Amino acid sequence: MPAKIIDGKKVAEKFLNEVNKKIKESKEKPGLAIVLAGNNPASEIYVNFKEKKAKEVGLYFERYNLEENVSQNELLKLIDNLNQSRKIHGMIVQLPLPKHIDEKLVVDAILPHKDADGFTPVNLGNLVNDDNRLVPATARACLELIKSTGEKIEGKNTVVVGRSTIVGKPVALLLLQENATVTICHSKTKNLAEFTKNADILVVAVGKPKLIKKDMVKKGAIVIDVGINKTPSGIIGDVDFENVKEVAGYITPVPGGVGPMTIAMLLDNTLNAMEMGRGFLR
Ligand code: NAP
């Protein structure tokens, strides 16, 4: 029997309705700022989506489009202003930044309680410590999509392919919190298929089109495809969807899987940021 398709848009809609409800009930209007530096076309598309959804759910929203040649100091000054703004509770600096800018330095400049992406060292450290107030949105998206299947996570063999700080590692930590047995694979892993074939839950975050083939997937597995790859035939994931769906139990499509869910998690993070910021001087 072919896999059940995990509809990321549908699951995201449920979360967005929840965010909308919380905003309506909130005394203070939560505010999100997005900073986009340079002319990366993919980044512009992502930011447009985030802006559209942020406005739809009723967040106060500010967007800053900076030139490709913006100086690091100008960018840091803007972040400092947003750190101090009383209207802004969460901010996102869209990555990648232009090459002359030190991304780590810029991310570190965001106050942890305004870090809607959950990328600052404090929030990543909190996650290691099982404190999930501001977790990287794509990692949260993966976990919620797995949970949406209703299948048990505890005790399951889980393989995460990819070990980036913003996706692979945080996904692995979230699954560990759920008491899964977690293996992380990466570009130096030998015999990748030997690991993926044993996975009851497989999360793939690599950025290589159709890396995961049908014969690398266990029958009935939950397969979460984070990859976004631009090809002449359109956007595709890291999983050979058409063939893998013949063996998997559940699978996310690309587009329409992790992407929409990531945006929902980002907006939810903004509410968490507002909550986390209470008690801090802004
Ligand atoms: P990244 O920082 O480039 O990390 C890629 C990871 O894949 C690295 O850990 C790398 O290993 C590993 N890798 C590379 N080739 C491999 C191979 N042949 N076998 C096994 N592992 C391999 O990428 P990322 O930021 O995590 O993003 C991954 C993908 O997800 C990209 O396509 C990105 O566009 C997409 N993405 C989607 C969303 C969304 O909202 N849907 C959000 C974020 C990212 P090493 O560490 O050894 O180099």
Keywords:
40% helix, binds NADP nicotinamide-adenine-dinucleotide phosphate, 10 helices, 3-stranded parallel beta sheet, globular, alpha/beta, 282 residues, 6-stranded parallel beta sheet
Poorly predicted tracts of residues = none
The largest beta-sheet arranges its strands as 1-11-8-7-5-6
Assess the beta-strand content as a share of residues. 15-25%
Provide the gyration radius in Å: 19 Å
Give the overall average pLDDT: 96
Shape: globular
Question: Count the helices. How many?
Answer: 10
**Biggest pleated sheet:** 6 strands, parallel
**Spatial separation of the terminal alpha carbons:** 55 Å
Which cofactor or ligand species appear? NADP nicotinamide-adenine-dinucleotide phosphate
Encode the helix/strand succession as letters.
EHEHEHEHHHEHEHEEEEHEH
Helix content: 25-40%
Please tally the β strands and state the result.
11
Structural class: alpha/beta
Task: Describe it.
The chain has 282 residues and is α/β, with parallel strands linked by helices. It is 40% helix and 16% strand. The protein has helices at 8-25, 41-57, 72-84, 103-108, 121-128, 137-147, 168-177, 192-196, 241-244, 258-277, and strands at residues 4-5, 31-37, 60-66, 90-93, 157-161, 181-185, 201-204, 222-225, 229-231, 234-236, 250-251. The strands form 3 sheets. A 6-stranded parallel sheet has the order 1-11-8-7-5-6. It has a 3-stranded parallel sheet with strand order 3-2-4. A two-stranded antiparallel sheet has the order 9-10. α2 packs across α10 (258-277). The site of NADP nicotinamide-adenine-dinucleotide phosphate has 26 residues, from α10. NADP nicotinamide-adenine-dinucleotide phosphate binds at residues 138, 161-164, 166-168, 185-189, 192, 205-208, 211, 226-229, 258-259, 262.
